[in-house]
Amino acid sequence: MTDVTAEKSNEVKATAAASGASATERFQAKERSEAASGKERVSTLASEVLAAVHDVIRRHKVTYAEYDALKAWLIQVGLDGEWPLFLDVWVEHVVEEVNNEARPGSKGTIEGPYYVPGAPALSADAALPMREGESGTPLVFQGQVRSADGTLLPGALVDIWQADADGLYAQFAPNLPEWNLRGSVTVDEKGTFRIRTVEPAPYQIPTDGSCGKLIAAAGWHAWRPAHLHLKVSAPGHQTLTTQLYFRGGEHVTDDIASAVKPELVLDPAPAADGNGHEVHYDLELAPEQ
Ligand code: MBD
Ligand code: FE
């Protein structure tokens, strides 16, 4: 006879395989530019990545046992669907850094694997979609969207997505409403927005997949600090992809994804109505080049 209890608890658990499969599917559905680089550049980049690997092997005299462990692990990353997670946690921050270091306006940071386009459209003063009695400290997040020169941007969209108070993302963990804590906010005529949500919990990388195995084998920790993800767009401006963190929160100073910048740490204050916290954060977009 099957153990119904075990099956059930397995079904409701957020597994690496389930979130990995969703993240891989999501990335494959993303519109992206094809063949961004010519032969010469591909050759340069590929040669230098390989040379860096060869250098590590020589310096550390990597054994055949270690080489086979690496092969097995790389194969398993793909089978677990964890390439999006692996790349966004350990590589994306440097891509973001080199691409946006000279951009005026608000600081960006990594997108990560859990953005989903097409979230419910919300007005400038709205609550994110959430369950009745959604747990977590209520948070009012308000601000104004401007161009880097200070001009108001009334046509802006603030796309927001976050984990819930258990650290889980809708569409990447089971049993959450499809668009829980995800919304696409149109700012008002002054460029302002006022979003009611709950504070997210820190996020733990799934421990039962390949990324989790690497973390355990290396003796690292698996945590990202609590964060709100934002994508802010407006006509004639470069889209800002960023995240906001909470001052004093766990892992703000040791994010596994290296995606915290001092400018991105919020200082929430007690809400005027005594219910949770509120915080003001303005967002400045760089004009299109
Ligand atoms: C996340 O929530 C996230 O934002 C990143 C970058 C990686 C893994 C999970
Ligand atoms: Fe995240």
Automatic annotation (TrEMBL):
Residues 141-169 form the Intradiol ring-cleavage dioxygenases domain. PROSITE patterns: INTRADIOL_DIOXYGENAS. SUPFAM superfamilies: Aromatic compound dioxygenase. Transmembrane segments: none annotated. Residues 1-11, 27-39 have a biased composition (Basic and acidic residues). It is an enzyme of class 1 (oxidoreductase). Residues 14-24 have a biased composition (Low complexity). The keyword Metal-binding applies. Keywords: Dioxygenase, Iron, Metal-binding, Oxidoreductase. Coiled coil: none annotated. Residues 1-39 are annotated as: Disordered. Its EC number is 1.13.11.1. Gene3D superfamilies: Aromatic compound dioxygenase, Catechol 1,2-dioxygenase multimerisation domain-like. This is Catechol 1,2-dioxygenase. It comes from Streptomyces sp. 900105755.
